[in-house]
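Exercise 4. Each item below gives a protein and its sequence. For each, produce the structure-token representation.

Item: Alpha-catulin (Elachura formosa).
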Amino acid sequence: MATSPCSSSGVSSSSSSGLGADAGLEIRTRSVEQTLVPLVSQITTLINHKDKPKRSDKTLQAIQRVGQAVNLAVGRFVTVGEAIANENHELKEEMSVACIEARRAGETIAQLTDVASLDHPESDSHITIFTDKTGVVKAARLLLSSVTKVLVLADRIVIKQIITSRNKVLATMELLEKVSSFQEFVQIFSQFGNEMVEFAHLTGDRQNDLKDEKKKARMAASRAVLEKCTMMLLTASKTCLRHPDCESARINKDGVFHRMRLALEQVVEIVTDSRPNGENEIAPISIYSGIKEFKNKVEGLRENLYFLSKENLSTMLEVILEHTEDFTDSAYTSHEHREHILELSKQAKMELEQLVSVWMQAQNQKTKDLMEDLEVAILKTCQCMNELKREVHSAATSLAADLLKYHTDHTVLKALKITGVEGNLEAVAEYTCKLSEQKEQLVEMCRLLRHVSGTEPLEITCIHAEDTFQVTGPQIISAAETLALHPSSKIAKENLEVFCEAWESQLSDMSLLLREINDVFEGRRGEKRVYLSLPRPGKHNANLKALKPVKLDTEEQAKIAKLGLELHLLTSDVDSETEKWEDQENEIVQHGQGMSSMAYSMYLFTRGEGLLKTTQDLFHQAEIFATEGTKLASALHALSDQVRDDDKPLLLLEAEKLISMCKQLQITAKVSAQGKSATFTKVDACILKTRNVMTLLCQLLPLCCKLLRKNKAGNGCLKPAPPWKEDRIQTGTNARTSEGRVDTFGIKSLENHVTNMTFLESK
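Answer:
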């Protein structure tokens, strides 16, 4: 299916000053949204100054500085946008128009804020922010709208890159399906592996950047399928090549290719926000979400007796009770749970009848007694629904706990491996029947858990788990049959092992998922842990089992808060120092900005915010931060060759200090930590060492700036700006993005230009 990347459309945000971005644009990623935040904030501050009656010279000068800073920053921003336009012809016209609008709006704001030299700006014939309120608001709106368009257009280039990468993977998969020799297969699979790593990095970045938690969960599920299927594809294809006439081997291989294609297609649907043939996505309805919506409607009667009909409320309850039949009809629901659910369903109908009766009376005659009766009816109805929710939750989670405990020893899988190697077709057939029964139990478990999962991301994870058991079960059976037919085949044995590992891995994931569902139900947690993501850049391995993600709890965050705050203040100091440099393209400045950006993300981690979600994310970021510091030390060595002899020793001494501190940080980040206490100690040490590096950086930047001015050798350290090439794909890590991720198309460069507009704080 040919998919267009042109799917980014809409901003619904607005400010108290009446500023609103273009209603035809929708922001779907955090990077674009966060880029606009400082611009909206500073322009709002600027607009708000117009209504202040007292205008001192200091205020007038500050307003003029803001206007000039906006104009300069927008000019730099537009230059980047125009460079992107020149390298992406299909977006050139739209991007150019948006850039022209942004430049024009920036210049208008600069003109309207040119008030510092005016003694009485109101009486002067010169049009200013004080005399043309409509003009400045119009210019601000145009600026926000055009900057947003540039960002969204740049984001479309990122989407295009993901689609291009997907297409490359699909093309190579077609070649892999048709190969007839091992030599040819090995060559093509090597290319396929590299393409999958690239695709994993691109989609991983996108997953982190998505605002919609539901889409993030769908992306995580698709990427988990691709991760596991990559190894399956290798062994299934090799088995087919070794046994070309074996029907079960062919079925096994075809199943893997089909599942990978579906996952690749879903990724593109998510990033383009489209569905095949234009069909709308049908959201799964769970009992939990149905009860939540029903209770909201019932409780809404306290405020408004007329906002919905009794038929509407009755229909909502009917839908909920229809879904409870998934529990009462299930062969795996205990007799006790079934009876309780049926009793509560009957009670819910009675409570609603009583509620509707009092409600109708209250609509005709709003007396105090009737309103009290209505309140009682509302409370009793909601209490009944809470009890029903608790009962279905108990039924689903107790079944899941029992099944996961029962299947934890993987008896059937072990038996299939043994009987397969023995070539015992009869025994294999017997155990495949038992595996099919186990599959049906686990699929039913996933369906029931979905009803009580509590959040949309967890619902999606339940659906993903159901699909995995549904597909992997038959694949294990075909792999076992192949081994039984060829018991001496090492590759057939390896193939069965891989599919059994995928089954075991999914059972392990279910234990995490069950814990998450219980946490949500008990109010301990509102977000889904990301335990389905692919390994991080540089760590990609089809056999690699993901580390269990760990987050800091509230107590740990409190302990580390002071250290995090110190890190935050240091990032502000570094940013202030880098802004003083006339040449923002200087290599030292770029490394400093990259390190500051990463240190800020580590500070956000101490608050439980930002894109670093787990301790493993933090340690990975610390490694990249240290690597960037080492690169900065190299730039300092290069600078030392250009400064005078009497200045060189000091610079080299500071560079050696930096190298030593970065090495210490890298060692700390790489040391293994087992257990909660050891992990927290490692987190504390990483942030402490990062703070020490940032302290040194605060001393280094002014020193280097001074030496450059003194020696007039700034050009010697210049690094050319990177070309805006669409095919500039980096599979390594680039630490100059805010989260240490690959900056391929300049979305982060655009972000940096806007984020650096640090103009004027509200007074």
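Check: Residues 30-116+130-156 form a domain with the Four Helix Bundle (Hemerythrin (Met), subunit A) fold (CATH 1.20.120.230).
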